[in-house]
Specification:
Helices cover 31% and strands 24% of the residues. It is an alpha/beta fold. The strands form eight sheets. It has an eight-stranded mixed β-sheet, with helices on both faces. A seven-stranded mixed β-sheet has the order 5-4-17-16-18-19-20, with helices on both faces. It has a five-stranded antiparallel β-sheet with strand order 22-21-23-25-26. The longest helix has 17 residues. Bound molecules: 5'-O-[(S)-ethoxy(hydroxy)phosphoryl]adenosine. 5'-O-[(S)-ethoxy(hydroxy)phosphoryl]adenosine binds next to helix 11, strand 20, strand 25 and strand 26.
């Protein structure tokens, strides 16, 4: 734990060093891991091509660092605690030794299915321990995991399986989510029917015991295959830059892209940021409520904590089941010390019962983290007072799927905190604010585009199968910089505050949704000509989804068509992308070149009619009045 920062002076010193000599700075941190062979070059700094490489020449296995490395000292320490959906169902705990054995068994099982180094393995699994075991098993043998959030539809799953050409899919029979039991295997079957020819096997973990259809040629039960394997599996020796995983995320155009992270840099970055952001101490119990289907689950339920030798808690259920005190009950039950969740959850629980947390003993809490979307001041204060009792710092962490780990946050007890501010860059991170022309703004008290000006070990290396897309999305807009897609403010003391996306990506309950994807889904309906999807401020979700839709005919039965549109979105993406508001319009405002004027629709969706501005360049200015008169603002 020598690289854990403890004081403000150490933070300042680490930060200074990381700027003056990034190579020496990161090499010192990397030295604390176990390598089969050390690197010959710390970083290849090419953010133009881009061709960023970290720890080139090194040989390593991330699971050796997550598991084997800890056995002598903490083999009997709990690595993973699993809290089931039902509060009275038995908890499961795995020590580091037990987790290593389970990972080896699953790794051997994958090998027996013909999975080899470099093959892609897709996960469509809810929050059961086997998803963690399976992910680590892939990393053990050098297979590339591609986890798909189990709330996505069969279509969305099929798209991702095909893009990654996954050989094996891991799933469960069903998913317990609060009071509901949701089919999982059935969705995988449906997806595979959509032309996923690369898939040779589906490995199913029996979670609920419900009935499933079975194809003897393809389907294998986890308990039949994994349980009989040897508990020993030598880690595959990986090159530093071998891909570790692909994770699909939405952008402003086109289909979701597979963000690719590689082995060594991601390992060093997630561990370092975990130790510093949460100030984890031996014996602490750490809980991140994210789903493993998102990057937060990858980096801060699994890799970061396990690399740091922590005890990480994984929760199967949802915050509102059996009641809205569940999170606080779980904190009380395990005496959780660091708690990491999303503002949406905080706002929903705050709205459900202001004083509900008072019923529980939350005195174990030392650090409270927030991630995924801007945290508004009211939620920040409630979190601080009710959950942190005013003496546990609230740490707002800004980062992205593409950054691999936390980039900007206060460090609890070390740097100060300020509501709504993620605040300070971590050592090794060089954020800059650019103006619209791509010029750096060096002063404080400014606002602009957030970019990063030097590589960091956890950054994405490419987008799967399409390097050009990676270049044009992130590196070409402002040459020499990584472009985040976010706007930010920097206050007079150098703290950063994230304002939000500047592209057509919306953030609904902390989930990234591309408006183009939702439009594509809506437009699949035969009675729809075109649509425009816009984000609007929503009290609980942060942003809601507003769809302006033009049908082929006069809509006489709006409720029926609305229902069908929601079904369409659920079918093509999943329920998380369902619009909150659907307004049928006669025409969408367009420029002479036929482009939809989204700026105008945004102002209407945001209920800021006075800011609509100039509409004289529209080919159909009358559309604006028509849309305004039919607009809805129920939230
Ligand atoms: C937003 C989630 C404000 C931001 C880890 C970013 C945030 C996108 C914060 C990435 C925060 C994430 N404050 N906004 N603390 N954290 N965001 O890839 O717009 O799912 O670009 O990664 O979420 O979402 P992603």
């Amino acid at each position: 734990m020598s690289v854990q920062i403890k004081t403000l002076e150490q933070y300042q010193e680490a930060f200074r060093k990381s700027i003056e000599n990034p190579e020496a700075f990161w090499a010192e941190i990397a030295d604390t891991f176990t390598w089969y062979q050390k690197w010959h070059t710390v970083v290849n700094n090419d953010m133009i091509t881009p061709d960023v490489r970290w720890f080139d020449g090194a040989k390593v296995n991330i699971t050796q660092n997550c598991l084997d490395r800890h056995i002598p000292e903490r083999g009997n320490q709990t690595a993973l605690i699993w809290e089931p959906n039902e509060p009275d169902a038995p908890t499961q705990k795995y020590t580091y030794s037990e987790l290593l054995a389970e990972v080896c068994k699953c790794a051997n099982a994958l090998k027996s299915l013909g999975v080899q180094k470099g093959d892609r393995v897709c996960f469509y699994m809810p929050m059961v321990p086997e998803v963690a075991i399976g992910i680590l098993a892939c990393a053990r043998i050098g297979a590339i995991h591609s986890v798909v959030f189990a709330g996505f539809s069969a279509n969305a799953l099929a798209e991702r399986i095909k893009d990654a050409q996954a050989k094996v899919v891991l799933c469960t029979d069903y998913n317990r989510r609060g009071p509901k039991t949701i089919p999982v295997k059935e969705v995988v079957d449906e997806a595979i029917e959509m032309g996923c020819d690369s898939v040779s096997h589906v490995l199913t973990y029996r979670s609920t015991g419900g009935d499933v259809l079975w194809d003897e040629r393809r389907d294998i039960w986890w308990h039949k295959l994994v349980d009989v394997q040897s508990t020993v599996c030598a880690p595959e020796i990986m090159d530093a830059e071998d891909p570790l995983f692909v994770l699909y995320t939405s952008g402003s155009t086109g289909k979701p892209k597979g963000v690719v992270h590689t082995t060594a840099g991601y390992m060093v970055f997630t561990c370092y940021t975990f130790m510093n952001t949460f100030q984890y101490q031996d014996g602490d119990i750490y809980w991140c409520t994210a789903d493993v289907g998102w990057v937060t689950g990858h980096s801060y339920i699994l890799y970061g904590p396990l690399l740091a030798g922590a005890t990480t808690l994984m929760f199967e259920g949802v915050p509102g089941y059996p009641d809205t005190g569940r999170f606080w009950q779980v904190i009380d039950k395990y005496k959780v010390n660091q708690f990491y969740t999303a503002p949406t959850a905080i706002r929903a629980l705050m709205a459900a019962g202001w004083d509900e947390p008072d019923k529980y003993d939350l005195s174990s809490i030392k650090v409270l983290g927030s991630v995924g979307e801007p945290i508004n001041e009211e939620a920040w204060r409630w979190y601080d007072e009710k959950i942190g009792r005013g003496n546990s710092p609230v740490i707002d962490t800004w980062w992205q799927t593409e950054t691999g780990g936390i980039m900007i946050s206060s460090l609890p007890g070390i740097t100060d905190t300020k509501p709504c501010f993620a605040a300070y860059p971590h050592p090794g991170i060089q954020p800059v604010i650019l103006d619209q022309n791509g010029q750096i703004i060096t002063e404080n008290n400014v606002e602009g585009l957030l970019c990063i000006q030097y590589p960091w070990p956890g950054m994405l290396r490419t987008t799967y199968g399409d390097h050009e897309r990676c270049r044009t999305t992130y590196f070409a807009p402002y040459p020499g910089y990584y472009f985040t897609g976010d706007a930010a403010k920097r206050d007079e003391d150098g703290r950063y505050r994230i304002i939000g996306r500047v592209d057509d990506v919306i953030n609904v309950s902390g989930h990234r949704i591309g408006t183009a994807e939702v439009e594509d889904a809506i437009n699949q309906h035969p009675e729809i000509v075109e649509s425009a999807v816009i984000g609007f401020p929503h009290d609980i979700k942060g942003q809601g989804i507003y769809a302006f839709v033009k049908a082929t005919h006069d809509v006489t039965q709006p409720e029926q068509l609305r229902k069908e549109i929601l079904e369409m979105v659920t079918k093509y993406i999943g329920p998380i992308a369902k619009p909150d508001i659907i307004q049928f319009v006669i025409q969408l405002p367009k420029t002479r070149s036929g482009k939809i004027m989204r700026r105008i629709l945004r102002k209407i969706a945001e209920n800021q009619y006075d800011q609509i501005g100039d509409i004289s360049t529209l080919i159909n200015p009358e559309s604006v009045e028509e849309i305004k008169s039919g607009a809805q603002h129920p939230f």
